[in-house]
Amino acid sequence: MGLEWVWKAHERSEERMTLAEYLEKVVRGEIPHRGAHRYLLDALEDEVGEGGLPFAGKIVGAERQLREFMSILRAGALGQDVRRRIILLVGPPGSAKSTFVYLLKRALERYSRTPKGAIYRIAGCPINEDPLRGVPDEARPALEVQYGIRIEQHLCPVCAHRLESEWGGDPSKIPVERFYITDGVGIGVFAAGEPNTQDASHLIGAVSLSGLRTYGSESHPLAWSWDGALLRGNRGIVELVEMLKAKPELLHYLLTTAQERQVPVDRVGFVDVDLVLIAHTNYSEYNRFWREPRNEAIRDRTRVVEWPYVLRIRDEEKVYDIMLGNPPGHLAPWTKTLAAGVAVLSRLQKRSSDSRFPPMASLKLYNNVWGPNGYPTNTDDPLSVMATKEEFEEGLVKAYPEDGKKGLSPRVVVDWISSALVEAGKCLNPIALAHKIRTSYTEGLTEWSKGDIEGFIGLMLNEYHNYLDKLIQRAFTTSFEAEAEHYWRKYLEHASAAVQGRKIQDPVTGRWVDPDTKFLRRLEEAIGIAQPAADGFRKEVLAHVGTISVSGGSVRWDSDPRMAKAIEKIIMADRMNVIRTTVSAVVPDEEQASRLEEVKRFLIEREGYCEECASFVLRYYADRAYTGATS
Known about the structure:
Strand 10 (262-265) and strand 11 (269-272) form a beta hairpin. Strands 5-6-9-12-2-13 form a six-stranded parallel β-sheet. It has a three-stranded antiparallel β-sheet with strand order 1-4-3. Strands 7-8 form a two-stranded antiparallel sheet. The radius of gyration is 33 Å and the shape is elongated. By secondary structure, it is an alpha/beta fold. It has 26 helices and 17 strands. Helix 3 (36-45) packs across helix 5 (97-112), helix 22 (517-526) crosses helix 24 (561-583) and helix 25 (590-606) packs across helix 26 (611-626).
């Protein structure tokens, strides 16, 4: 098989026509007339995936920011004044601001190569000019009234010169061509850098020496080099890296471009542009800049989108998956979770000792996935907590508005994981990573002391030990599912009889007996249901089961999260003595050794462990069981 397919992916359509032909196609609806905000919005909507947002699997934990950004584009696409703003992404280092802008640029490139993303310019125009700018002013009102085509801007100096010199003053003959967005064509980038290296030419271009020799005047449009970022980015986007570090005179160019949608080009005049200005910076630069009274004008023309660190631990784990790619070894279950937990805890605003939202409670609240009824849908996740969305928004979020603005960057954490994995060899476990974090963290990396980070590690290890206790208990109970199902069916039968005040027929003797309230209370007490609340609780469970049945769902032992927790607790409590004896045996007998091998196979085949980390986790659990540290 040949490799022709490699090059076909990059094939381009060389469409050319006159402006007269182009206008006919626009009028017939064959080519959409759209500005830069609409074009970028269409490109992003072409990328929409799970959740109705673009870049699924590439940007994680930024749903609010993405929705806000899309909302700005929609308003700009409708011609609202927001298109005269610089969109400023503000967040700490490593919060994916620049990644987002990079993805925007790549999305534009991909979209411009699709049939529906076809975009056209005046052939040879140095700033990729919209062909309709060549339509005479006198014809524009009628076009808008009859066809809804609104044309606001005018030809750049180069095309205005060529209209007379090349096309005989006849705009209908202006040549039009399809073009493809790429870096430098519909995408401009300006990085502020050091003050002594900043120059206006980076934004607006400069006099071309060869052009000057040919045309003899610096004000001649063909004597200008049209390679400034604000000109290259016409019809697309301009990325402004660390914009707030730019010198005041350069900010003037940005302000004018945003406000007037014109670039003030020295010696040439004002040049109409249609683009989306996107800047990004960190909180320290942002706070310094915003305090300066002299920056009031640029502040007024800036739309800020805050882009804090991820605070949902499961999203933070996904960030590591993206950044690590294919790691050179195996990460044991809970390794990324421990790292993500320490990172999230470091991003929380400092709490007082009597806070309603201590660190671990805050972490679990942030980890909740809220359903339409205002309650969490992921209550089966041990790192979530039962609460209401109102408690979350009106309590935690309002009390601690600085959460997510500081702390450990994902880059730092991923470096620790990568380094620890290389040192570990084939497999990295949570305990080895905890040691790596302890030894690698240095004072000043964040506002937290080394002791604080040690405390965060301790909080996460407590959660890890809870996970481990349940995992080993389940691994030892091979008949768990069947036993859990038996408990569940018995509970439903006896709870229903107790609520209705009727008797139950004993399956062995056939006699009618009272419901086993002792059995009911043992399960209910396991999850803290007091005696006075027992009747109401039973009715809730039965009603929940009824709802599932009516909707055609399967009523399993874990259908009700509260009862699943109770059943799990009771079964595991009954098994603990056997488990402790087996795993902590210094020299296990034949039966114990066989049982341990079965447990290891369970961990490997069903829980994502490898041979090395399965052996480690059994040794680690045995050490804790021997000292009585297990639950």
